[in-house]
């Protein structure tokens, strides 16, 4: 196996604690859509998170349409996607914080210059950029090292489709074998694993009572090893280097 040259980080709830903020905004819009279609079901942010974690809003909307047998016109669908982006970005700019320990790990990795760093996300590029800007991670991820399944591809998609990881590798001039991905969700893990990328699972953004459940979920999806805190990461990288030769 090739030496690791490139680290591909998921963004939401891997580098920054954005999912709660995002799903609050998503729930408002999802409920508006359901009401407009005469459907009585309503969602809370946590309920949406449980059902759709790891998907972007476009993917979530497609899933909701299938679940409730809806067919929104493309212009209506796109308008909701734009409104969701705007609402989430407003929340991000107001109150986003990084995942515990992520800042110091990125600073250390950037200082050593042993690896190329990139973000690979399901979320819209505008949202990812707003996230890294808000917490100062733009120091480590220039715009040409931010990849979005929603906006970087010719046809928008969402994890678990591996397309965005394959696109990132191709753009960066890397093979999947020389990359390591870091993911917190089943969909994200499946996306990276299906692209042929070794994947580290991160469960530190989950509540304590959820962590063991997510350890099993991510392991089953192909992540190995699983880490609870970013302080474990550099040791994990060293072990991956040893076991890859």
Automatic annotation (TrEMBL):
One term of GO molecular function: phosphatase activity
Keyword Membrane assigned to the entry: answer is: no
Q: Does the keyword Iron-sulfur apply?
A: no
Q: Which organism is it from?
A: Mycena chlorophos
Q: What is this protein called?
A: Haloacid dehalogenase-like hydrolase
Database matches in Gene3D superfamilies = HAD superfamily/HAD-like (3.40.50.1000), Putative phosphatase, domain 2 (1.10.150.240)
Pfam families per the record? Hydrolase (PF00702)
Keywords assigned by UniProt?
Hydrolase
């Amino acid at each position: 196996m090739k030496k690791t040259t490139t680290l591909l980080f998921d963004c939401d709830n891997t580098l920054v604690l954005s999912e709660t903020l995002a799903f609050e905004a998503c729930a408002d819009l999802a409920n508006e859509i359901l009401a407009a279609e005469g459907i009585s079901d309503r969602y809370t942010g946590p309920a949406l998170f449980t059902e759709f974690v790891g998907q972007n809003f476009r993917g979530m909307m497609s899933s909701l349409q299938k679940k409730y047998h809806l067919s929104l016109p493309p212009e209506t669908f796109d308008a909701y996607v734009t409104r969701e982006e705007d609402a989430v970005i407003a929340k991000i700019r107001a109150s986003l914080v990084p995942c515990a320990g992520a800042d110091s790990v990125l600073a250390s990795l950037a200082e050593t210059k042993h690896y190329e760093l990139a973000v690979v996300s399901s979320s819209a590029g505008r949202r990812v950029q707003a996230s890294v800007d808000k917490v100062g991670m733009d120091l480590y991820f220039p715009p040409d090292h931010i990849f979005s399944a929603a906006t970087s591809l010719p046809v928008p998609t969402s994890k678990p489709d591996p397309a965005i990881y394959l696109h990132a590798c191709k753009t960066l001039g890397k093979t999947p074998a020389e990359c390591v991905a870091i993911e917190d969700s089943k969909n994200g893990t499946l996306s990276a694993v299906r692209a042929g990328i070794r994947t580290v699972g991160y469960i530190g953004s989950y509540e304590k009572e959820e962590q063991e459940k997510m350890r099993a979920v991510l392991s089953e999806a192909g992540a190995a090893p699983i880490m609870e805190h970013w302080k474990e990461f550099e040791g994990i990288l060293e072990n991956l280097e040893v076991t890859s030769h």
